[in-house]
Amino acid sequence: MTVISSVKNPEALSLTIVTEFDAAVERVWQIWEDPRQLERWWGPPTWPATFEQYDFTPGGRAAYFMTGPDGSKGRGWWEFTAITAPNHLELADGFADDNGDPVIDIGAAKLTLTLEDLSGRTRMSVKTNFESEEQMAKMIAMGMEEGMREAMGQIDAILAE
Predict the structure, then answer these.
(1) Which spans in 5-159 are helix H?
(2) What sign does the CA torsion over 131, 133, 138, 142 have?
(3) Cβ neighbours of residue 121 under 8 Å, at least 6 residues apart?
(4) How confident is the model at residue 106 (pLDDT cuts 50, 70, 90)?
(5) Which domains does the chain have, with CATH numbers?
(6) CA–CA gap between residue 14 and residue 16 (Å, rounded)
(7) N or C: which end of the chain has fewer CB within 10 A?
(8) Tens digits of per-residue pLDDT, 24-33?
């Protein structure tokens, strides 16, 4: 398993997951910038993602859905707010309705990705900042932490290809 730590910080309204990979930073960056690679790991194994829109530029948006084992679809959106290849990415992350429109009552979280070179290996830190205690509690109760751990556990196989 690639996940080395998962830390919930209710005071800071954050969840940080740290992983390490036997691949260079530039290679790990590719699993974020290429939506076809992203589809292979974003979401737990039983909820694979399909990206319908992916404009990987500051101010660009992504639209995706994850398909559950029963065929149901959970939709989401991203807005890229900062991109500094190959080490740093920030985006707003939220749920979408069946039309792809943001679900306002849940709000958006801020995801910050940092990739750090470890002499040819890579440490990937994904920090999610929530808008409120209520939003954080709801997302954690929905299985966000476990889902992200499972999703990130799929990355080694992609990097090994």
Answers:
(1) 25-33, 35-39, 133-141, 144-152, 155-159
(2) positive
(3) 20, 21, 22, 23
(4) confident
(5) 3-159 (3.30.530.20)
(6) 6
(7) C
(8) 999 999 999 9
Count of CB atoms situated within 10 Å of the CB of 17: 21
Whole-number Å distance between alpha carbons of 38 and 46: 15
Q: Tokens for 90?
A: 């920030």
Q: Indicate the pTM of the whole model.
A: 0.94
Query: Which pair of structure tokens corresponds to residue 47?
Result: 């909820």
Q: How many degrees, rounded to 5, is the angle at CA 79 between CA 73 and CA 84?
A: 125
Q: Rounded distance, CA 81 to CA 89, Å?
A: 8
Q: State mean pLDDT over 80-95.
A: 98
